[in-house]
Hints:
The chain is of the alpha/beta class. The chain has helices at 3-22, 35-41, 53-64, 86-98, 109-126, 140-155, 160-163, 179-187, 208-220, 243-253, 290-293, 309-315, 348-382, 409-426, 453-481, and strands spanning 133-137, 169-174, 195-198, 224-231, 256-261, 285-288, 301-305, 387-389, 398-402, 432-436, 439-444. Residues 80, 139-141, 144, 178, 180, 235, 260, 262-263, 289, 301 line the site of pyridoxal-5'-phosphate.
Amino acid sequence: xxxxxxxxxxxxxxxxxxxxxxxxxxxxxxxxxxxxxxxxxxxxxxxxxxxxxxxxxxxxxxxxxxxxxxxxxxxxxxxxxxxxxxxxxxxxxxxxxxxxxxxxxxxxxxxxxxxxxxxxxxxxxxxxxxxxxxxxxxxxxxxxxxxxxxxxxxxxxxxxxxxxxxxxxxxxxxxxxxxxxxxxxxxxxxxxxxxxxxxxxxxxxxxxxxxxxxxxxxxxxxxxxxxxxxxxxxxxxxxxxxxxxxxxxxxxxxxxxxxxxxxxxxxxxxxxxxxxxxxxxxxxxxxxxxxxxxxxxxxxxxxxxxxxxxxxxxxxxxxxxxxxxxxxxxxxxxxxxxxxxxxxxxxxxxxxxxxxxxxxxxxxxxxxxxxxxxxxxxxxxxxxxxxxxxxxxxxxxxxxxxxxxxxxxxxxxxxxxxxxxxxxxxxxxxxxxxxxxxxxxxxxxxxxxxxxxxxxxxxxxxxxxxxxxxxxxxxxxxxxxx
Length: 482
Ligand SMILES: Cc1ncc(COP(=O)(O)O)c(C=O)c1O
């Protein structure tokens, strides 16, 4: 492929994608297709001979596009993967063309500077000062892992990097945390058995009395408190833990406080429901995911650290082959010395370009609209006797359940799963189910700038209809059995 062909195919690709995005709502959101069929579509040996660009593009149109989950569809209310903003999509194209490796200054000087500024913007949103730093990561999972690694090294007075873990340590978090916290305590050597997943109150915030009890019991048993992971926007309901209380307890016990704002970080640019006063800046480190509620395309997560030096103490290694002998004035920032990853995609480009193109103001408008969507659904649910909501939405995530027809929990679980699957088959919406406090819920999270209020009305009408049909089908089956 020469640059002439690149230009020609590139223009056609942009046309194809513009068409796709313009008509995204007309597509069935989720393809009704068996996995075996998809595997068969791609079952071919490693190509030995070239194909024309036309043929390759044709295959993309035939084999990939029709079977995508169209997350940019306004009815996608699923697993916190928002509609990617258009400037961000273009940014990823530039990113691949330039292929800057922000792991090391010498492979992307201007990219490193841009990433430093983007990290600074995010840190300012948190409320951190000039000492703050961070890394753009593959997502919240990697950011939570880095947060836990910082916590472990801090708690060991910087011995664990060398000696591993010698004492018994415990990490405290909410029963509503994301599973990446469990993975992180495993990966840093603490072990999942030492993660204390504490009960929450009626608003799904971690209970401070339960935290105090767990710490006291651990200390009595010779287990050392290492870290608290506070939630700033839980996956299910957007709950925000009381970070000032968590800070006070962490200080008293000499613990690190990490806050998971992977989803909730978006609230920091909300105009109508700003959450800058919830104490996020009190955390020692924060996970934030621009690829969630800043509408950046995947992947773009971030770990932000109040004192950037902690990153260097935790990760700082300089093998000879990477040491930059040209850096005579010691000004070239080497991300690999201050983070876990070495080769790293220039993720900040799409975050930077999105903030430049739309401004925090426009992104905040999208966020406020999504919160209003959740509130609208909440009002509909409140007005219907057969449905209930877990709580008033704190952000855009809302959990609701069908409570008609006196079902036991196992029947209710089956009904919710069946209805969610029928919603998927409708091609109009995608929602998930979840469990909280021993009950099954529909989990609905509008994080999409194409969603309009009427989509919420349509979704609720569909849920009502499908729940009633499922109940009738169950009754008919019972009658046949009797
Ligand atoms: C609260 C929270 N933390 C962490 C994560 C993990 O983020 P990622 O999927 O970007 O790895 C998620 C994902 O939904 C989340 O909701």
